[in-house]
Design goal:
alpha+beta, Structural Genomics Hypothetical 15.5 Kd Protein In mrcA-pckA Intergenic Region, Chain A, five-stranded antiparallel beta sheet, 7 strands, globular
């Protein structure tokens, strides 16, 4: 995997490479719409991603908090893309509770 930890990569490009969004345009739209926070703050698509940064992403009804573990600007298979980040335990627990609540209300 091509890594550029010293230079960093644009936030919209990293989100696309990590397979959170299908296109860079969609990633850019989500960032500009306030659905993505970088280290707890709204950001711009051109923000350079750094290792160990915390990203909070809103996707539909789900909200994820992930920590950046690797940086790449190339989109890879899903199995490799999952090595770019680590979801926090609190985020996983919260998503599971929300999913269960949606099932009960359905």
């Amino acid at each position: 995997m091509k890594e550029k930890p010293s230079e960093g990569v644009r936030l919209d490009k990293w989100l696309w490479a990590a397979r959170f969004y299908k296109t860079r345009a969609l990633a850019r739209e989500m960032i500009e719409g306030g659905k993505v926070h970088y280290n707890g703050q709204r950001s711009k698509p051109s923000k350079l991603v750094e290792l160990n940064a915390t990203l909070t992403l809103r996707q539909g009804n789900d909200e994820r908090t992930v920590i950046v573990k690797n940086i790449t600007e190339q989109r890879r298979p899903a199995t490799e893309a999952s090595t770019l980040y680590e979801e926090t335990a609190e985020s996983v627990e919260k998503r599971e509770k929300m999913a269960q609540a949606r099932k009960l209300n359905a």
